[in-house]
Design goal:
The protein contains 11 helices and 10 strands. It is an alpha/beta fold. The chain has a single domain, classed as putative 2-phosphosulfolactate phosphatase, CATH 3.90.1560.10. β4 (68-71), α3 (87-92) and β5 (100-103) form a beta-alpha-beta unit. α5 crosses α6 (159-172) and α6 packs across α7. The longest helix has 15 residues, at 128-142. It is globular, with a radius of gyration of 18 Å. The two termini are 23 Å apart.
């Protein structure tokens, strides 16, 4: 099976050299979306609806007012959001069985880029081995390839994501499968092998610099904990109409009839 790595989410999914429909993908946004997603599910959250922008997030909140609205723009939670994008804050909140709407500057956009993949998971350092195990198993069973998508920071390469992709490749090397690694896979592996510690690696990232400037530096050490959890989020495409009906709400807007939304479920 082929293992590809894309270094930022600023790519055209229609022009990519690999077939997304025959690919299992891991979205990586260590600082902080996929770390926060991991913390949500570990703390008992139900499902997470993903929004591509603030407008869509607020629209979903209007339809599902009981859902918790979570996320950030340039590190800070926008007005009207219930929570920001801090995994530490999420773990200390009472959220068991509650559903979420999540919108972030970089991470949630990545899921929209790869929504047509055969399967998509949320990968962080917190759940790295567990998530890679799921990805490799599905790829092996179905003769799929593997894609690691680094979210980056507003189109730029972010070292924390690149390094984490390297840790994932390093872990794959311990498995009894015949992988065909792309050049970018070898590049990120070199980054992972060159580092003394996870925390030191994350400290080098532009994402860390931005986060510290915003006053959220405490999240860095938390996001550095390797394999703390055995849970991940798996992406589903769901009908907004059916979700509204399942929630026992009235359905009136004909525009919603064909609309599909992205939802992560615990796995």
């Amino acid at each position: 099976m082929k293992v590809n790595v894309v270094l930022t989410n600023r790519f055209d999914e229609n022009l990519t050299e690999f077939n997304l429909k025959n690919t299992v993908c891991a979205v990586i946004d260590v600082i902080r979306a996929t770390s926060t997603i991991t913390a949500m599910f570990e703390n008992g959250a139900g499902n997470i609806l993903l929004a591509e922008n603030k407008r869509q997030a607020l629209r979903l909140k209007k339809i599902f007012p009981e859902y918790m609205l979570c996320g950030e723009v340039n590190c800070f939670p926008p007005k009207g959001f219930d929570y920001g994008n801090s995994p530490i804050d999420i773990l200390s909140a009472v959220i068991k069985n509650k559903n979420f709407i999540l919108m972030t500057t970089n991470g949630t956009k990545s899921f929209f880029k790869v929504k047509n993949c055969a399967a998509v998971f949320a990968l962080s350092i917190l759940n790295l081995n567990y998530t890679v195990d799921n990805i490799v198993r599905i790829a092996d069973e179905n003769f799929y390839d593997i894609l690691l998508l680094c979210s980056g920071e507003e189109g730029k390469i972010a070292y924390d994501d690149v390094y984490t992709a390297g840790l994932a490749v390093k872990y794959m090397l311990t498995k009894p499968y015949k992988f065909e690694f792309s050049d970018t896979s070898k590049l990120v592996l070199s980054a992972a092998l060159s580092e003394i510690s996870i925390n030191n690696a994350l400290e080098k990232s532009c994402s860390t610099i931005s986060l510290k400037k915003a006053g959220f530096g405490n999240d860095i050490q938390f996001c550095s904990q390797l394999n703390r959890y055995k849970i991940t989020g798996k992406l589903n495409l769901v009908s907004l109409k059916s979700l509204i009906i399942n929630e026992g709400k009235s359905y009136k807007d004909s525009v919603l009839a064909k609309e599909m939304i992205l939802m992560l479920s615990p796995c």
